[in-house]
Amino acid sequence: MRGRTGPLLLLNASGCLDALTAPEVAATLDGFVTKTVTPLPRDGNAPVRIAETDVGMLNSIGLANPGIDRFVTTHLPQLAKLELPIWVSVGGFAADEYAELCSRLDDHAEVAAIELNVSCPNVASPAESVAQIVASACLATRKPVWAKLSPAVPDVADVARAAQEAGADGLSLVNTMRGLKLDDRTLRSALEPGAGGLSGPALRPIALAAVHACFLATGLPIVGMGGVQCGRDALDLIAAGARHVALGTVLFADPQAPMRIRAQLAGELAARGYADVDDAYAVTHRESLSTTTTK
Amino acid sequence: MRRERRHVVATEKLGPYTMLHVDRGGLDPGVPGQFFMLEAPGRLLPRPMSLCLAPRGELAFLIDPIGPGTRALCRLERGDALTILGPLGNGFRLDVERPLLVGGGIGVAPLPYLAEALEHPRVVLGFRSDWHAQAAALLPRAEVCVEPRLVTELIEPGYDVLACGPEPMLEAVRGQAPAAQLAWEAPMACGFGACYGCAIEIEGVLKRLCVEGPVLCFS
Predict the structure, then answer these.
(1) Are the Cβ atoms of B192 and A21 closer than 8 angstroms?
(2) How confident is the model at residue A3, as a pLDDT?
(3) CATH number for position A152
(4) Could you give the 3-state DSSP secondary structure of residue A185?
């Protein structure tokens, strides 16, 4: 059923966990989001693919993945054994590719949701608008469709509104933003492809602003992500309007982060007198919303 | 995959390098050539380090301070705490008849532990300067050369080569000994297959070093 949100889900951000090489980490999440699957297999970008900055991390993996055929025949059956809701992230270079990917996943009961990666900073963008892609995808599947948006646009709330009107069931906010690091010695790009996607703490206030704006603009359920390191960061996203929270870069440094952040979040909620996550959900907006309704 | 908060018990300078001794706790030292992710104080990401030595109750890592993370690790002092994950990846196969260990620069790091496991085979080491070559003290019986002489000049045919060093050295070793076991290096964010950052291209094929390596053999 579209539009059902349910309790808080703690997920991984797409591309930040391989549930088959680290099933014990996946087991501590409420659902596993796959690395983006494309119509054809992709090796990804040439190394060097990652670099640390003072406040984040750059990656240019370039959507390395086995392609939809091998994903469906080989990976999905293995992922199903984990007995976790599987969110499949899909990416293409045209709206009809997204539609094809969604239709290939439609009959697989183990797929809980589909996330449309319309915002990878490391590959060419599809020519069509987010709205066209979302509309094509929604026609091709009965699964809930979540649009993963980039904050690197003039107004992410406009894009969110367009995604909602096209039929999106939810929003994943945010993807990485393009950044560059130069090698100390050579002053050439530290990453082989040049720029990469910036993640980690540097992205946190940007993600928070996007969640805040898109919640106000759409009221859609949101998976908030971007630089979450601790329970307080998760609480911020929830307060700003995230129904669910995903962990990205923090998983690289701390595979035990899901349990730690869950415990910290419980402590943060209790310390502030919130009965549960629902009590704190979108609390940032409550006064302004009630002001609006009384006017 | 075990992750523990451990403490530095000693540090030791060897030329430009620092040997960091930590208490072992419940961590398994693993197979020579496997690695651990060491929390780099003040940095976002941990750093991958192969185990250099496994004294009783300790793990010892040889670290080259080449960037902000490795410099932070080299500044650690006795009593400081750091989180360690491992052992990770695939180490060297030890079922070899006539082993020859080949190390270049900081590539000497996994060889002392490997030499112990293979009951002190022949070792050849190459360094860029006499200062760097102080690390050869870790392998007292090793034959050592300093640039412009290259360590590959010391490799004779008929050995099972196990090597660690910079990529050009590994490529040269592979040219001389196609069946060599080679320990590669790449920037790594996680060490357990999550980030896809440590892919290296060998003969046109991308390999995720943390789960397929870091020790690879091509024949």
Answers:
(1) yes
(2) 37
(3) 3.20.20.70
(4) coil
pTM for this predicted structure: 0.93
| Chain A residues with CB-CB distance to B1 below 8 A | 22, 24, 255
- Flag whether A100 is in a domain: yes
Q: Mutation test of the interface with chain A: which of B1, B2, B39, B44, choosing the one with the most A Cβ atoms within 10 A?
A: B44
Where would I find the beta strands (DSSP E) of chain B?
2-14, 17-23, 35-38, 47-50, 58-63, 81-88, 99-104, 122-127, 143-146, 160-164, 181-183, 199-202, 205-208, 215-217
- Among B4, B73, B195, the residue to mutate for chain A (most A Cβ within 10 A): B195
Counted across chains A and B, CB pairs separated by less than 8 A come out at 95
Asked if A21 reaches chain B (Cβ–Cβ under 8 Å), the answer is yes
Q: CATH top-level class for B2-87?
A: mainly beta
Half-sphere exposure of B92 (CA within 13 A, CB side): 31
Domain membership of residue A4 (yes or no) is no
**A1 lies in a domain?**
no
Q: Say what the pLDDT of residue A124 is.
A: 72
DSSP, residue by residue, A276-295: SHHHHTTHHHHHHHHHHHH-
* ipTM for the predicted complex: 0.93
Return the CA Rg of chain A. 18
Q: Residue A22: which of B44, B188, B193 has the nearest Cβ?
A: B193
- Comparing CB atoms, the residue among A48, A49, A253 nearest residue B44 is A253
Inter-chain residue contact B69 with A52, CB threshold 8 Å: yes
Q: Which of A16, A102, A120, A138 is catalytic?
A: A120
Domain assignment present for residue A52? The answer is no
Q: Is the pLDDT of residue A289 over 70?
A: no
Q: Which CATH architecture fits B99-217?
A: 3-Layer(aba) Sandwich (3.40)
So what's the pLDDT on residue A288?
55
Task: Indicate the domain borders of chain B.
Answer: 2-87, 99-217
In chain A, how many domains are there? 1
A214 belongs to the catalytic site: no
B193 shares contact with chain A (CB less than 8 Å): yes
Q: Look up the domain containing A271 and give its range.
A: 10-46+61-181+199-294
Same fold, B2-87 and B99-217: no
d(CA B101, CA B107): 11
